[in-house]
Design a protein that fits this description.
single chain, about 190 residues, mainly alpha
């Protein structure tokens, strides 16, 4: 009986640790995204960014996927973005919900037609800016490197997987080039 109680206590402690660690990551990510949203003139988005991750439908599957059993390997493998094949139906559904609840994801702007084709729609300016702030904040939270140069490099490495309307893609490149150039010009080594 004591052995069973101790085993249950260990499981609960592990679960509480997972919740704590995921909450810390979310707070760190929201802080980085919020700060850059404020700098880019998006104060409301700074407050509301990724609030859907706090809902039970997203929180539980995300916590399990990124902080449950085998999660350290998954977090390391996902440093550059979400995987195509997760092996977790719960996580995949939570991710799909997140994409459909949040216009700052490029996937929200894809129109799936009845013939099976996909058409990218132009992103609104605010959604595009929040997406860029999200990429910046995710990089800062995951790698510790907060820079537009890193964000631009990440986009260039992943652009082949990101489906954007041509006008949105041009605006993304223009924004990232501008911010990376400013960063370079303002660095102490210049």
């Amino acid at each position: 009986m004591i052995h069973r109680a101790l085993s249950r206590l260990r499981r609960h402690r592990s679960l509480l640790r997972q919740h704590r660690d995921y909450a810390r990551y979310i707070a760190k990510h929201k802080l980085h995204v919020g700060l850059v949203c404020l700098r880019e003139g998006l104060p409301l988005r700074a407050l509301t960014h990724d609030l859907s991750k706090l809902t039970p439908g997203e929180w539980g599957p995300y916590r399990e996927y990124f902080y449950g059993e085998g999660s350290a390997e998954r977090r390391e493998a996902n440093r550059d973005g979400k995987p195509d094949e997760t092996g977790s139906r719960a996580f995949d559904l939570a991710w799909l919900m997140h994409l459909h609840r949040n216009r700052h994801h490029w996937q929200w702007w894809l129109l799936r037609k009845d013939d099976g084709s996909t058409v990218p729609l132009p992103m609104s300016e605010r959604a595009m800016l929040e997406m860029l702030c999200d990429w910046y904040g995710a990089g800062a939270a995951i790698t510790g490197e907060a820079s537009w140069t890193r964000t631009k490099r990440w986009f260039e490495d992943n652009a082949h997987k990101i489906v954007l309307h041509p006008s949105t893609e041009a605006r993304v490149y223009a924004f990232l080039n501008d911010r990376a150039d400013r960063e370079r010009d303002e660095s102490p080594a210049s």
